[in-house]
Amino acid sequence: MKIGMAVLRLVVGLLFVGHGMQKLAGWFGGGGIDGTAQGFESMGLKPGRDNAVAAGASEAGGGALLAAGLATPLAATMISGAMASAFYHVHMPNGPWVTKGGWEYNAVLTAVVFAVAAVGPGKLSLDHALGIERSGAGVALGALGVGALGSAAVAARAKSLA
């Protein structure tokens, strides 16, 4: 179990770091802040630049925390919020299947971070090493709920600026 959770956290976390850095710095073929901001504006996520920074920071920061197993509930909150926004603003109208631009992958990633928050980051984590590991159904539900509230706040702000 030790190595399994560590590998899961590392793979998902580091991929989120990369996904966020696509938005923040244009790494790995991403649009960077300007390209992401322009894309967000076209989807009605205004102001695009603020949302691009927030999304990139949530993904890269949450991914780094998840990979390290540090502040795991916060990592789950940041990633859940980003995935909720992606689900709502980008993928929901396309149905569930990713082959049609749907939300299935967002749901899988949300389920992964929910499960890590519920089970805990494991013994091979900074949370465990520092004695600050927190987990359980309440922690996972809280992370999911706060992430969803953050996503709803982003949507409300964008709507008010439209």
Provide structural commentary.
The chain is an all-alpha fold. It contains 7 helices and no strands. It has helices at residues 2-25, 32-42, 48-68, 72-91, 104-119, 126-130, 137-161.
Write the layout of secondary structure elements.
Layout: H1 2-25, H2 32-42, H3 48-68, H4 72-91, H5 104-119, H6 126-130, H7 137-161
Helix pairs in contact: 1-2, 1-3, 2-3, 3-4, 4-5, 4-7, 5-7
Features:
single chain; 162 residues; mainly alpha; 7 helices
Brief sketch in words of this structure:
It is built from 7 helices and no strands. The chain has 162 residues and is mainly α.
What is the helix content?
A: over 70%
How many helical stretches? 7
| Strand fraction | under 5%
Strand count: 0
